[in-house]
Amino acid sequence: MEYTKITAVLCRNFGLKHIEIAEDIVSDTFLKASQHWAVNGIPENPRAWLYVVAKNKTKDYFRKLSVFETKIKKEIQPCIEVEPNFEFDSQMVSDSQLAMIFAVCNPVNSDESQICLALQIFCGFSIEEIADSLLTKSETIKKRLQRARANLRNDNFQLKSLTKTEICLRLNIVLRTLYLLFSEGYFSKSDKQQIKIDLCSEATRLTLLLTENSLTNTAECNALLALMCFQSSRLRARTNDKNEAILFDEQDKSLWDKSLIERGNYYLINATTGNELSKYHLEAGIAYWHTTTTGKNKWDYILKLYNQLILIDYSPITALNRTFAFAKVYGNKEAIPEAKKLNLVESNYYHELLGYLYSSVNIKRAIEHYKQAINLAKSNTERQTLSKKIMELSRILKKSAISH
Questions:
Q1: Nearest alpha carbon to residue 14 among 159, 161, 162
Q2: What span, in angstroms and rounded, lies between the C-alpha atoms of 255 and 32?
């Protein structure tokens, strides 16, 4: 995430119009790091090393630009203004990141384009990762990004000043971007690493910053932060030492972080001070119930929350999760027709859910769906987890055949 932090600080000084220059300088900085560290070892403070090199490269760039402008093209005034003595202190980095994401979430672009651009520039997502997060084709994302960058350059927006009106207009998109960033970290779909804790931490940290600003400390923002805290509390329990996923029912509850659950409770209470009810409120409520180890009617409450969520923000994933909750309340056999109504035959999660539901009803059908899920899954760790389920079911099937 240091790449995006340095880019944000440089853009704050260059202006967003020259974002490509900032990105080039940061790329050169990381290239130098890979070369220097390979020979001399990783420095005691890698972050400080990167910041110093990026600052020096910035000075070099403007020194060369000044020579070009004064000696070669005297008639042309320098087109970029920069503060010569900017620093990479923690406050500057935090302020720059927030200003950057609000600036990128610019109404000159469509909502979808704003999210794509923010995920690429601010969060460092590849085109494939953005496409996976938004369930869209890579080529569509690529074209969307090209148009959005052009609009951003032409708008000549500056990062240094944001008015209250501008912040209010852009806050929804900012929250959605942070939500997608956290989701990608919590359950990555396009990488060998199923959980990316650094992405979850970064999204949580930035959302926390929003709650500390009077203009952005809204009920919706608190609800999102509560959701992130509840979900983060179970991160350590979601994989084993081999980086294999552990299903919810099989997780070691003692590994859940109680301090994060308490923080989630705190922000969820803050989120309920008004009459607002957003998707983040409902998802935070669902996540809250998942952190409770007891509760006779726990899954009834979760199903009711999913029923509300699906009405205000339908998505295939929400529909599948709702069906899982339905199975917990009414049983796997009754949930199978509910799942089939969704007919998401091209989704690995659809087949994974049917595999789970059929496990206690028809093992052969369960194995068939798990195999289809493996063929559609993009994550290696996900495929490994599904293969493990097939092996377990095959053993049960074999024992059953022998006993008969």
A1: 159
A2: 39
Condensed to tens digits (0 to 9), the pLDDT of residues 48-97 reads: 888 888 888 887 877 776 665 555 555 545 555 555 566 667 767 777 77
Long-range contacts of range 337-340, CB-CB < 8 Å, 24 or more positions apart? none
Tokens of 10: 């440089």
Contact (CB, 8 A) for 120 and 130: yes
Q: What is the Cα–Cα distance from 390 to 384, expressed in whole angstroms? A: 10
pLDDT tens-digit map of 215-248: 889 999 999 999 999 999 998 888 887 777 787 8
CA 87 to chain centre: 28
Whether the Cβ atoms of residue 389 and residue 245 lie closer than 8 Å to each other: no
Rounded distance, CA 69 to CA 67, Å? 5
- Say if CB 217 and CB 268 are below 8 A apart: no
Instruction: Say how far apart CA 342 and CA 321 lie, in whole Å.
Output: 12
Contact between 99 and 8 (Cβ < 8 Å): yes
The token duo for 206 is 């930035």
* Torsion region of 4: left, alpha or beta (phi above 0 gives left; psi -120 to 50 gives alpha): alpha
Residue 145 makes CB contacts below 8 A (sequence gap 6+) with: 113, 116, 117, 120, 127, 130
- Quick one: which of 341, 388, 393 has its CA closest to 362? 393
d(CA 12, CA 62): 15
- To which residue do tokens 């590849």 refer? 126
Q: Which residues lie closer than 8 Å to 166 by C-beta, 6 or more apart?
A: 102
